Amino acid sequence: MSQETSTWPELAIGLYDKLTGRGAEITYEFENFELHVPSGASESATHAKWRMNGTLRIRTRDQQAA
Known about the structure:
Blueprint: H1 8-19, E1 25-38, E2 47-59
Antiparallel strand pairs: 1-2
């Protein structure tokens, strides 16, 4: 049986768990990108509009391994 992520914190924790200790870096480049970010995981969630230009880097590091 597969479990679906139902909250933003669960998603963040899952991503961190997958990348930590692997020297991982994810780089995104945006040009005139708009993202409508929901306030929650329900269908009735409100949305905030984010506009992005430039580079977003996500790096992970395990504090215990440092």
